[in-house]
Each structure stands twice: as C-alpha cells, then as structure tokens.
Amino acid sequence: MPDAENSGSGHPQAKRPLKILIGADTFSPDINGAARFTERLAAGLVERGHDVHVSVPNTRYKKNPTHTEIIEGQPVTMHRLPSVRWTPHDWLRFVWPWRSKHYARKVLSEVQPDVVHIQSHIVIGRGLARIARKRGIPVIATNHVMAENILDFTTMPPLVDKVVLKLAWDDATRTFNMARAVTTPTRRAAEFLEKTIDISGVIPISCGIDQRNYTADLSPRTKMNVVFVGRLTTEKHVDVVLRAIASLVPELDIHFDIVGGGDQHKNLVELTEQLGITDRVTFHGRIPDEELRGFLTRASVFTIASIAELQSIATMEAMASGLPIVAADAVALPHLVHDGENGYLFEPGNVEDLADKLRRVLTAEPAEYSRMQQASLEGVKIHDINRTLETFEKLYRNEPLD
C-alpha cells in the first residue's frame, strides 16, 4: 500500500458527510499520545462536517447517557462505558473485556455508523471490530500500542509476562485481520508491527499537528532551558535525561523543565535530590495546553529519551515551536529527528552521549542554532493535521490513496 504519511493535502471535495464511530481505550481526561490523537481526529472530522461518535471508558463504573462533549473546540457525541481502574497504573481505566462485545452491540445499534475506526485492539476496539464485521460495517484500525509497555504494570513474573505478551499479539493479529485497513503513525512503526505479527500492508499516517497553534521564538536564547513533555513512566527514561543534566552542571547554566505526570514522579524527584540538582529541575505536572505551549516557546531544546515511541506528538509540538530536538535513536523518533539537521540522536540509555548532544545544541553558534530551529519548523510541515484527516476520509470511503 502507498505511504500515506506523505500524501498531499488540498481542499476537501464536496461529498456526503459520514457517520463515524471511533472506539478507543484511552481518551480525555487521560493525557497520552493515543488519547490526544483520538481527540484531535474526532474534533477535526466534526469540523469537516462529519457526524462523529466516540466510544471510550467512563471515569467511573457507570454508563453515561449518550451526550455531547466539547473536544478541541468541537461538539463530539460521546458514549462513555462503565470502567474500572487498573490499580498498578496511576490513571488507566478499562472496560471489562467480557463486556466489550455487549457494549459494542448496543453502541453500534444506536449509532448505525458508516464506518468504525478503532484506536486499539485491546478491549473496546476488539469488541467493536468483531461486532461491526458481523454486521458488515467496514473497520479501520490504528495501532498506537507497543504491548511491551503494558508489562510494567502487570505485576506478574517475567515468564508469565512473556506468555501474556504472545497472547496479546496473537489476539491483535486476529483483530487487525478484521479491518479493511490497518494504520500506524510512522513507517518505522508500520515496519515494527509487520515484523511483530502476521500482517502486511500497514499504512503509515501521521497523527498530525496543527502548526498554527504553536509559536516559535527565533530570537537568540539568553538562557539554557531544556524541556521534556510526556508521561513519567519507565519507558520514557527521564532518569537518563536527569543524569545527563547533572553531568553538565556546573559546566553549563541549565534548567530542566519536566511537564507531565505519571507513576515515576516520586522516583524521579528522589533521583533529582540524589544528583544534587533540585535547584536546576522543576516538575510542573500536568498543565493546560496554553501553558504547555508557552514552555515550548521559551525553551532552548526539547529532549526525549523514550525507547517506545510509535511517533511522539510531544516531539512534533516541540518542532512546531521551533525547537532543536535531542532524542533517543529508537523506534520512530529518528523519523522526526534527523541527526545533525534539526537536532541530534543519541544512543538509547547512554548518559554521556545524551549530555554531549545537549551540549552541542546549547553551545551552538547563533547561526547554527537558528539553522536547527528552521529545520524543525520545515520538518513538521509534512505532519499537518489536514493531511491526516484527508487520508482517513479516503480510507473511510474506500478510495485510493495518493
């Protein structure tokens, strides 16, 4: 299949609006890449004139009546299903798996969509795919999941984890085989999925970003502010960044802003104290989008040490803010960060390499720093949200991709 990630954009053709049901296991008020993409997808489709319904877990074990929520400034019809919290995780909630098909039947009967777009194969998407297929409703599936990430929260022995992992990917194969098309955010993520399970023809479609919402400050930097935005979980490896910052102090007058919350917050605060850099690091927790965009505008460099990114919306937001990026050379991050162009890649987990790459950016001559800023701004253009929405519209209508 063609690489839709780089498909062109243009004015949408005047066609009959679609009724689209999106199913996801994570959504607002959750804060993570998959949830943010689903919110932007739903809102973008509404803005383009479609009737969009979203089926997601509720914030409690009670089914909310069908209602409208304002998502990204757009009215979206919500179907929030009874859910329970996964206690090893700080916020994750899920629908009981054995109830997923029951809820799928009810929501599909109520909505009667033209197409179903699932955002994961785990619970809600799994149920929707099976019932939609029986009813002859086309299914589009997007994978945001690396099952290995979930193992941090199973609390089971490693041997059992391996068995669970195999079963999870086997079930993913069965679910994806029910879809008319399977997508994932980047070409590398598509290759990862094709190598992991028995599937081919996975289509890379960027999660997309509206660059107009972000402001780049192209004036010379007078301070050395490093920023990270994301969940504070083990696969993000924020500890690696903290150790790199510590190795650069007092050589450089650095301040590190950490935006986001997660189960590793306490451990990272303790590590900051052990490293003796508490006066150089600020944990901001979860903050409103407007405040987040301000941090990105004012920062000097964005860094991410994660080894489990299928794309990284936070990195795209930093690029749209005109920041050089220092990122781990892992999974899909090299798709966004071109070494020596809009920043640098470092060997995953290598504190010395990360420190060296941060030093290069923070001590770059003004012309070199400006060149990296411009490269980020140019590089993020292909991830325009309108390209993403147009590509999904074609998949929903079973039209050929450019």
TrEMBL record:
<keyword id="KW-0808">Transferase</keyword>
<dbReference type="Pfam" id="PF13439">
    <property type="entry name" value="Glyco_transf_4"/>
</dbReference>
<dbReference type="Pfam" id="PF00534">
    <property type="entry name" value="Glycos_transf_1"/>
</dbReference>
<dbReference type="GO" id="GO:0016757">
    <property type="term" value="F:glycosyltransferase activity"/>
</dbReference>
<feature type="domain" description="Glycosyltransferase subfamily 4-like N-terminal">
    <location>
        <begin position="31"/>
        <end position="210"/>
    </location>
</feature>
<dbReference type="InterPro" id="IPR050194">
    <property type="entry name" value="Glycosyltransferase_grp1"/>
</dbReference>
<dbReference type="InterPro" id="IPR028098">
    <property type="entry name" value="Glyco_trans_4-like_N"/>
</dbReference>
<protein>
    <recommendedName>
        <fullName>D-inositol 3-phosphate glycosyltransferase</fullName>
    </recommendedName>
</protein>
<dbReference type="InterPro" id="IPR001296">
    <property type="entry name" value="Glyco_trans_1"/>
</dbReference>
<feature type="domain" description="Glycosyl transferase family 1">
    <location>
        <begin position="221"/>
        <end position="374"/>
    </location>
</feature>
<keyword id="KW-0328">Glycosyltransferase</keyword>
<dbReference type="GO" id="GO:1901137">
    <property type="term" value="P:carbohydrate derivative biosynthetic process"/>
</dbReference>
